[in-house]
Design goal:
- The complex is a heterotetramer of chains A (about 110), B (about 625), C (about 300) and D (about 475).
- By secondary structure, chain A is mainly alpha-helical.
- Chain A is built from three helices and no strands.
- Chain D has a domain of about 190 residues.
- Chain D is about 70% helix and about 0% strand.
- Classes of the chains: A mainly alpha (about 110), B mainly alpha (about 625), C mainly alpha (about 300), D mainly alpha (about 475).
- At the B-C interface, helix 16, helix 17, helix 18, strand 7 and helix 21 of B face strand 1, helix 3, helix 4, helix 5 and helix 10 of C.
- Strand 8 of chain B pairs parallel with strand 1 of chain C, so a sheet runs across the interface.
Chain lengths: ~110, ~625, ~300, ~475
């Protein structure tokens, strides 16, 4: 279920990219897309009835069912990268606004 | 045999000479040009000395060389043309934008030519073939048009890449590049043979400038530097004959496809592929002739005439009997000499007057009589009139065509033959005869070193017109090694399918006739010399020589008859336009810098990938 | 060799005498046609020798050289012609020699006349060459049929083949369409109306001949007689079976030539583009039909 | 052999980047040192190379840890990359100022892209290199295009990550070799199930590899770029991404026939359309960027056909010649204020040495004999024919004619002055400028000589030059020294 939801989120992000011409909204759409993606990745690690994959004194047996921890690690990296890209994009947006005085891509002219 | 006197040595030597010429030209332009003379001369001498070594095999690294008899024939012809033209280089150094590069590329092209004709392997043939292409591709824009070079390259690349396709296809099937072996293998399998025939055939057709690939000739020949046009027209174009010869005779396609012949059981039975070649040749004759008649530019006119003559060569090779192939070889030989001489005389005219537009010239015979004679001999040969070598080849080709009863082809050939009178006469009339323009009053004869090769080529044309059997004997040997019957040569007489020709006798009788005319002329009262302007003008007074010179739109009534004919030039222009439009469309569709549109394409593409992938 | 050349001289002499006389006779016939008395039959000789003896003008060396080349080339062509079984060089009287050796003479004349610097000469030559493209192609296609059918291109052999059994083996009978085409072409070759465009005295002042006088004119007149002789003899040999006797030859020649002349007097002049259009509509179609008949159906072999 | 050089190829430039941030003034030297080190390290690795090495980061055994793979393929990759990167940096060093950090990061990331044996790690390196590229392209002063690049690049790498996640979901591993092994033992038909992830990965990589229609950013970013940014993107970045692409195709892409056809259509379509677009362009850099797109299409198409060696030859040829061509095109554009062909007639008269370099590179690009490009082209065609593929050679050859036409147009125009119908005259070239930089001249000359030498020597030395395996040549020819 969560997987469908995340895919829908990704599609919303892509729809945003398709329909928006405002730079900030584009960045937001990108972010929505990334969030959907990250949710998706997290969701694939899910194991029904799985435990937190941390060895504690309560669950010493390695035969127990764990949630896959790797996607969480991946998502952390992905989020970090996403943040970096968003920051860069916002910086670019600022510069564009300085130069063209607008956030609308179509109003910026040029070829 | 030692390496010093061998084909690889000639090729390497020419490359070395090219580098030397480049360096020396930087120091002294004339010195560099001299290297082209010496280099090509030495190579010619070496190749002539190698006549005894025909069929010897040598290698240079991974490249093999085999001196076949036809390879020797072509090489000598090319070297002769390059050597003759190289004298002109001495005078052109100031007119060429990159003299050093010119000399370098001149010799590289020559090395490529020798290499291509003597390569043992197909891949070697291709490498040298392309070397010629790129060397000449850089020389052509030194002349009057940059676009000409692009056109030249595009056509040449089409031809040579077609050949590459065939070469590699056959390599993947036979596992070898050896020309002899591959063609032998190909001849045993109809599919391979067809691929070889089409691909190598296209290379030949493009190179020799046969319709519909003829467009580059007028462009490149007409606009190349004046010293390089004779090389292109007299020399490099003939490489197309070489490729066609490989495809049709050496393979031999006419035997492979013998069962797919039209008109089986008749004299004119001929395999369909050969018929296609004959057809294209016939069309080129007509197109080349008509376009040559229309040309206003001296060099373009000769270039179109090369198209027509290429048609004869292809027809000769495609008919594939000994007389026709012998005729084609002779025609290549004769036309090489004649068109080189014609272009050289054009170059001499340009050297003195600075233009090739026929309407701006006139009456130069009174200033440059020798150039005029050279041109006269060249056109007599090109029009196939005795006693020049062009007559011999045309005679052989006509014999063969009539023997086969090829009505339509012969009709085209006759048209081209008579039409050639029209176009060769035009420069004669417009450039050399008629009124001398006052601005050319002080023009002088071409300098001595330019006269040397012009006279040399003319004498050769005359020599082989009077005694063609010197060449024909060798051609006969080539035909025999290629599996055809030899020519029937008997002393001075050539025998065709339905007649005999004794060129020496014809020349002798012509000489006697001329002598009688001379006597009649001499014994009668001497004429009074009057000025050119002192002519019948219906009592009008005209003082402007240019106005009394009939040269512009010379054949206007005839041209009008076909001015609306479909034009391949326009077709190609439209094709290029379409490609450019398609390119712009791609550029604006996918590269418009609007994220949402490109994202849209991306989404479409992903959907397409998923949909297509899951089919 | 020497006998051959001497025979050639003989033919040359005969050709000159006969054709020049015939030209005079023709002038008389035409005169009668036009309700004139006409000149004497030897008037043409008089004209030629008078021209030769006069002092003319020259426009430079090519003006003279071209005339010599023209006359020399034409005379050489005549020497190859087989006439009444006499052939200077048996086996060498190849049809193509006539076509192309004739061209030497034509080229010489064209060169000489354009060398005069008169644009009318240039226009005349242009028209002559254009017309040549018109008539030569149909003519040569017909000849292709003949050579293909009889498997020889030697004129004397072709004549001999036709003489095998009287009139029925003449190409006139066996290839009637071709003969008509060839005759139309012959009119063009001879420059008779309606194909007289390149001379057209009223338009372009006789075209190529505009500047000539004196010995150059005389030589060109001789050349013209020879050229006419070659062309008519070609027709006689190729289509009328040649001739075994002198009388037969003269008779056939007379008919062919005078007929052409009469046609000429009855018709008006074409424009040059009309000439080409005409030749490339009717005669060329007929010629190809004829040639196809010979090649594919074997008719007329 | 010291395997730690493998990780150092990434670590040293990364370290240099950190140090440059700390000590801004010395950034230039840190970058120089990193580049120098990478050159030396890749040289040493090549010299010592015996057999494939898997370097486990942190000692974790694959598939649990991230591993770097040094085999012939990545060895070739790092050699090419580091050499090209170094040459570009030297040639365009005047633009480096203020961008030392980004360049160091880019160097580290590109090395990582080539070396990594882990899918997610690949994504990370790709993303880092892409971010570096975004920042570099801000040098063009046209932020709009950079933003466009950023949006597309991010979306692309998002799709790549999506695909990787699906793969992980299916096979439970991120290590490429491990996945490969698991694919072999899975019972259900792998090809059908892999359509979604493969299509996503293909799309994601295609954005950076400049395949149509995913490469909409390329024109805006490259058409006004200077000799640092543009050249890096068309040669170094392009090389690394294509190499990664090739590795994935080689190891992961178990394709159904229909998927192979769709991918081939995209790549071959890229080849054809981009060459046509290049043909229609009149500006130097635009022509070159479209040509670069087309070549990428060809390389990926060859990888898809399983012709690794041929693809690598094309790649090498393209990278080296594009480096020269784009550097000079950008320089011409900068010196003369325009890179429009018709305003640059005869510009090489001003500097013939650079002209020769440009010419050699261009002729190699179109694959004329006696230049390296011909060796590459012959290999491509021979191996295609040996794989019984006939239509692809046909397409390649027909497209070559178009390619040749625009390259020749470029060459003839740049060498010769004069309008159409006029004689080319040397005096007409006076208004142009093409300044002479010693570094640039030396590098261009050496590269041009290398191209020619690599075009002639195989003809003389190797009997099977049209059929040689670059990877085994690397081990036998270089590693075995």
């Amino acid at each position: 279920m969560i997987q469908y939801f995340s895919i829908v989120l990704m599609l919303v992000g892509i729809y945003g990219l398709l329909s928006q011409r405002n730079v900030i909204k584009l960045i937001a759409a990108l972010n929505i897309f990334e969030i959907g993606l990250n949710l998706f990745i997290v969701s694939i690690g899910f194991v029904k009835d799985g435990l937190v994959p941390i060895l504690t004194s309560n669950n010493e047996s390695s035969a127990m069912l764990y949630v896959d921890p790797l996607p969480h690690a991946l998502v952390l990296t992905s989020i970090v990268i996403g943040v970096g890209v968003t920051a860069l994009a916002l910086a670019l947006a600022k510069k564009m606004h300085d130069k063209y005085g607008t956030y609308d891509m179509d109003e910026m002219g040029g070829k | 045999m030692d390496f010093i006197l061998s084909v690889p040595a000639i090729v390497v030597g020419l490359f070395a000479a090219a580098v030397l010429a480049y360096l020396l030209t930087k120091a002294n332009k004339i010195l560099g040009a001299l290297i082209t003379v010496l280099g090509s001369g030495a190579a010619l001498a070496a190749m002539l000395m190698l006549k005894g070594d025909i069929n010897s095999v040598q290698s240079l690294g991974a490249l093999g060389f085999k001196l076949t008899d036809y390879g020797w024939f072509f090489s000598v012809l090319m070297l002769l043309i390059f050597f003759s033209v190289s004298f002109f280089n001495l005078y052109w150094m100031k007119k060429i934008i990159h003299p050093a590069a010119y000399n370098f590329l001149y010799l590289v092209a020559l090395a490529g030519t020798v290499g291509a004709f003597t390569a043992k392997d197909f891949i070697g043939l291709f490498i040298f073939w392309e070397t010629i292409v790129w060397a000449s591709m850089f020389i052509i824009p030194f002349g009057k048009s940059r676009n000409a070079s692009v056109v030249y390259y595009a056509f040449s690349a089409f031809g040579s890449l077609s050949m590459l396709f065939g070469i590699l296809y056959l390599y993947s099937k036979t596992g070898s590049f050896d020309i002899q072996y591959v063609l032998e293998q190909a001849s045993m399998n109809t599919t391979y043979a067809l691929v070889a025939f089409i691909t190598i055939g296209i290379a030949g057709l493009v190179k020799i400038g046969v319709f519909p690939f003829h467009l580059w000739l007028p462009k490149a020949h007409g606009n190349a530097p004046d010293t390089f046009s004779p090389i292109l027209s007299g020399g490099l174009v003939k490489a197309g004959g070489f490729a066609a010869f490989l495809a049709v005779i050496v393979m031999p396609s006419y035997k492979v496809f013998a069962s797919n012949a039209l008109f089986l059981g008749r004299e004119l039975a001929m395999p369909v592929p050969n018929y296609i070649l004959v057809f294209l040749g016939a069309v080129s004759i007509v197109v080349g002739t008509l376009m040559a008649i229309k040309s206003e530019d001296f060099k373009k006119l000769i270039a179109y005439s090369s198209v027509a003559n290429g048609g004869y060569i292809i027809i000769g090779i495609a008919i594939a009997d000994s007389l026709s192939v012998g005729g084609a070889f002779m025609h290549m030989f004769a036309h090489a000499l004649a068109s080189a001489a014609a272009f050289l005389s054009a170059a001499a005219v340009v050297h003195r007057t600075g233009t090739t537009k026929m309407s701006e010239l006139g009456g130069l015979i009174h200033r440059m009589p020798l150039t005029y004679l050279v041109y006269l001999i060249a056109i007599i040969s090109m029009a196939g009139i005795p006693p020049m070598s062009g007559f011999i080849s045309k005679w052989m080709l006509f014999q063969s065509m009539i023997g086969k009863g090829m009505v339509f082809t012969a009709a085209a050939a006759f048209f081209g033959s008579i039409g050639s009178f029209l176009y060769v006469f035009r420069p004669l009339s417009a450039v050399f005869l008629g009124q001398l323009s006052p601005k050319h009053e002080s023009v002088k004869e071409a300098p001595f070193l330019m006269q040397v090769p012009m006279i040399g080529l003319s004498l050769l044309t005359l020599l082989f017109g009077v005694f063609p059997n010197i060449v024909l004997r060798f051609i006969s040997d080539i035909l025999k090694t290629a599996g055809l019957d030899g020519l029937t040569l008997n002393g001075l007489v050539i025998s065709g399918t339905n007649g005999q020709l004794n060129p020496s006798l014809v020349s002798l009788i012509f000489g006697i006739g001329f002598f009688i005319a001379l006597i009649i002329f001499i014994i009668h009262p001497k004429s009074r010399k009057v000025d050119l302007m002192d002519t019948y003008t219906a009592s009008e007074f005209i003082y402007t020589p240019e106005l009394l010179h009939y040269s512009y739109a010379f054949y206007a009534p005839f041209e009008r008859l076909y001015e609306n004919a479909p034009s391949t030039e326009k077709w190609y222009a439209a094709l290029i336009k379409k490609i450019e439009e398609a390119g712009q469309l791609v550029s604006y569709t996918f590269f418009n810098n609007k994220p949402r549109i490109i994202v849209f394409w991306m989404v479409c593409a992903v959907i397409a990938l998923l949909w297509g992938g899951s089919l | 060799m020497i006998t051959g050349i001497l025979t050639g001289f003989g033919i040359l002499l005969f050709a000159f005498v006969w054709q020049t006389s015939l030209d005079g006779i023709n002038r008389k016939i035409v005169g009668r046609f036009q309700k004139r008395i006409g000149p004497k039959w030897y008037q043409q000789f008089r004209d030629i020798f008078k021209a030769l003896s006069k002092t003319g003008v020259t426009h430079g060396w090519v003006f003279d050289f071209g005339v010599m080349m023209a006359l020399g080339g034409i005379m050489a062509t005549v020497m190859f012609l087989p006439v009444v079984g006499y052939s200077a060089f048996p086996g060498m009287d190849n049809f193509f020699i006539f076509v192309y050796l004739l061209a030497v003479g034509m080229l010489g004349m064209a060169m000489s006349s354009v060398g005069s610097g008169n644009p009318l000469a240039g226009i005349g030559v242009m028209r002559a060459l254009t017309q040549m493209v018109g008539y030569e192609v149909p003519f040569m296609i017909v000849i292709l049929g003949i050579i293909f059918g009889h498997n020889t291109s030697s004129l004397s052999e072709l004549a001999a083949i036709q003489q095998a059994s009287g009139i029925m083996t003449w190409n006139l009978v066996k290839m009637p369409i071709g003969t008509v085409v060839a005759y139309i072409s012959l009119l063009g070759m001879l420059g008779k109306k309606p194909f007289e465009t390149f001379i057209a005295p009223a338009e372009i002042a006789s075209g190529p001949m505009v500047e000539y006088g004196g010995k150059q004119l005389g030589m060109l007149m001789i050349m013209h007689e020879f050229a006419t002789f070659i062309e008519v003899t070609l027709f006689v040999t190729l289509f009328l079976g040649g001739a075994t006797t002198l009388f037969g030859f003269i008779a056939k020649y007379f008919v062919v030539y005078i007929l052409a002349s009469l046609i000429s007097n009855a018709l008006a002049r074409f424009k040059i583009d009309q000439v080409i259009k005409f030749y490339y509509k009717v005669p060329i179609t007929l010629a190809i039909v004829q040639a196809l008949m010979v090649v594919f159906l074997g008719w007329g072999v | 052999m010291n395997t730690s050089f493998i990780i150092l190829l990434i670590a040293v430039p990364l370290g240099a980047a950190f140090l440059s941030v700390l000590v801004k003034k010395l950034g230039k030297y840190f970058l120089g040192a990193a580049i120098g080190f990478n050159l030396a390290a890749s040289g040493i690795l090549a010299y010592d190379y015996v057999s494939p090495v898997i370097y486990e980061i942190g000692g974790f055994k694959p598939p649990y840890g991230i591993s770097l793979v040094l085999d012939e393929y990545s060895l070739l990759g790092i050699l090419l990359l580091n050499v090209v990167f170094a040459l570009i940096a030297i040639m365009a060093c005047k633009y480096i100022k203020k961008y030392e950090v980004v360049l160091s990061v880019a160097l580290a990331a590109l090395n990582g892209v080539i070396l990594t044996g882990d899918l997610f790690n690949l994504f990370v390196f790709m993303e880092i290199s892409a971010i570096a590229a975004y920042i570099l392209t801000t040098m063009n002063k046209n932020i709009k295009y950079t933003f466009n690049y950023l949006v597309l690049g991010t979306l692309g790498s998002g799709l790549l990550l999506f695909g990787i996640a699906v793969i992980y979901n299916m096979f439970g591993s991120l290590n490429i070799m491990d996945i490969q092994n698991r694919m072999a033992i899975i019972s259900y038909p792998v090809a059908g199930a892999l359509v979604l992830p493969l299509a996503l990965i293909f799309t994601g990589l295609s954005v950076e590899a400049k395949l149509l229609p995913f490469s909409g950013w390329a024109r805006g970013v490259l058409k006004d770029s200077n000799s640092l940014v543009g050249t890096l993107i068309v040669s170094a970045f392009s090389a690394a991404v294509l190499l990664a692409f090739g590795r994935l195709i080689d190891s992961l892409f178990v394709m159904s026939d229909s998927l192979l056809i769709v991918f081939t259509v995209v790549t071959v379509g890229t080849l054809i359309l981009a060459e046509i677009a290049a043909f229609s362009k009149k500006n130097l850099r635009e022509i070159l960027l479209f040509s670069s797109i087309a070549q990428s299409g060809l390389v990926v198409a060859l990888f898809l056909q399983g012709l690794k060696s041929a693809a690598l030859l094309v790649l090498i040829n393209n990278v080296i010649s594009k480096m020269i061509l784009f550097t000079l095109a950008a320089k011409i554009g900068e010196d003369n204020g325009t890179d429009k062909l018709e305003d640059l007639k005869g510009v090489f008269l001003k500097n013939k040495v650079l002209g020769f370099g440009f010419t050699a590179a261009a002729m190699s690009l179109i694959g004329l004999p006696l230049f390296f490009g011909f060796i590459a082209k012959a290999n491509v065609l021979v191996s295609l024919f040996e794989a019984n593929n006939i239509w692809l050679p046909m397409v390649i050859l027909i497209v070559s004619v178009i390619e040749g036409a625009y390259v020749v147009r470029m060459l003839t125009t740049l060498w010769n002055t004069g309008e159409e119908g006029e004689l080319a005259k040397a005096e007409d070239a006076k208004q142009y400028k093409l300044t002479n930089k010693v570094r640039l001249t030396i590098i261009i000359t050496i590269a041009a000589i290398a191209i020619v030498a690599a075009g002639i020597l195989p003809l003389l030395q190797m009997n099977d030059w049209f059929n040689f395996d670059i990877l085994s040549f690397l081990t036998d020819g270089l590693g075995g020294v």
